[in-house]
Amino acid sequence: AQKVTQAQTEISVVEKEDVTLDCVYETRDTTYYLFWYKQPPSGELVFLIRRNSFDEQNEISGRYSWNFQKSTSSFNFTITASQVVDSAVYFCALAGSNAGNMLTFGGGTRLMVKP
Amino acid sequence: DSGVTQTPKHLITATGQRVTLRCSPRSGDLSVYWYQQSLDQGLQFLIQYYNGEERAKGNILERFSAQQFPDLHSELNLSSLELGDSALYFCASSVVSQGSTDTQYFGPGTRLTVL
Known about the structure:
The complex is a heterodimer. Chain A has no helices and 12 strands. By secondary structure, chain A is an all-beta fold. Helix content of chain B is 0%, strand content 52%. Chain B is an all-beta fold. The interface between A and B is medium-sized, with 23 and 27 residues.
């Protein structure tokens, strides 16, 4: 069985602060894929990043960065210098190779960035 | 804009009724997925179709059914609706590559309210 845990249900920061969203996963698959999606107040789910289990390199994209650590089964997401437009619910998701393309989502973290 | 379209955007109906949600995948994507997002269950995978054939099934109720047509659009049929079926229903699409798990791109969702 696959499981994704996002322990932080809600985080509130002031603009320009850095914030890290935690994601811990469980899977028995040796090959798997991890994803982050953003759900802004308008409701759609926006893809942010996809990472496979063989690639532990950290990734940076503008103000966003991701830290993947297989040893701790974590795939954390950091926003540097947060902005009000970053306010959204962020979901971590897992797809194991034996589960086909089915995504198992975490419960989401609601990020509120105040001006 | 992900390129995945869903209609209608909102749907309000009564208990016991039947509704059909429609999804058109991104151009070139052969696989369609349906997910349900509710307050108590979070984001849950319902069903996947690939090129017209059912590929995987998740926690989909027997009252729910889906199909994918030759033009690759998909419909999710919900019948004998109950109050608890009120949720945001997402469609996603992806290219399905051999030996890999592709990124799923989500549509804007259909918000179903059962009164």
